[in-house]
Amino acid sequence: MVVVVDTRKDRGPRHPEKAHRPDQPVQRKPDWIRVKAPGSRDWAKTGAIVRGNRLHTVCEEAGCPNIGECWEAKHASFIIMGDTCTRACAFCNVRTGIPEPLDAAEPENVASAVAELGLAHVVITSVDRDDLPDGGAAHFAAVIGAIRARAPATTVEVLTPDFLRKENAVEAVVAARPDVFNHNLETVPSKYLTVRPGARYFASLRLLQQVKEIDPGIFTKSGIMLGFGEERNEVLQVMDDLRAADVDFITIGQYLQPTRKHHPVVRFVPPDEFKSFETVAYAKGFLMVSASPLTRSSHHAGEDFARLRAARAAKR
């Protein structure tokens, strides 16, 4: 687990809504889930570029286990609109609270970091901003526009919030023409009340469907985590729902518990079960599937995008 050190004072607890909850059990991680601790020279260089442009990354904020591998390869996934989320999902390590105002310089700062890192493909995600009238859709569009202007050869993948009850938000992001539009369902419908209480399963599914209705040329992508106590048939139903929404790419990874106050890991799913889900997902018609214990939405996103594009071309 990556520990995020917050140097700003007087910000209170990272997860105030979880502070008084009883501690949950923490299972020992199996061998297949262990990763090498980060700390190489290239890892440090990537971190310096991120901080030099006053940016946040989902790699750090969400405690991604793949940060060492990705940053050593000078790959970083940026989290925009601050580091504080208006939601309080039971699985997420991103800070919860009242966000600060949007940084007008952020789109240019992101574009500068993308150019400096020489990224061929970049993933842009965000905290939930329920406090904004459009949920931050215009800011997403501004970031995409700035990257297009500064690094026109870079392909852009967005991983957006659900924009719940934010009229015309999806249209605004799609109009900026990202190459990939990702929105994660995160878990099966029966677990939403405990895992993702601020969201609605069918609203998220509808968002993905809308993207393809507006622009059929944009690749769509979604992901779920295993280990919350879901049943196999529920995972298969999510696959069917995503295919009905014409989603191209599914990611399936293992949930890892950030702290004792978060939802416990009910089960560590072995690699052979992930392989089985991958086989089934391809059979159901997904163009691209990434399923493994350490799979994350932005992990190997550039290589996966190249394979995704090739799979669509081969199908024509």
From TrEMBL:
Residues 71-287 form the Radical SAM core domain. It comes from the Bacteria. Keywords: 4Fe-4S, Cytoplasm, Iron, Iron-sulfur, Metal-binding, S-adenosyl-L-methionine, Transferase. Its EC number is 2.8.1.8. InterPro entries: Aldolase_TIM, Elp3/MiaA/NifB-like_rSAM, Lipoyl_synth, rSAM, rSAM_sf. GO terms for cellular component: cytoplasm. One of its GO terms (biological process) is protein lipoylation. This is Lipoyl synthase. The gene is lipA1. The keyword Transcription does not apply. SMART domains: Elp3 (SM00729). It comes from Blastochloris tepida. The lineage of its organism: Bacteria, Pseudomonadati, Pseudomonadota, Alphaproteobacteria, Hyphomicrobiales.
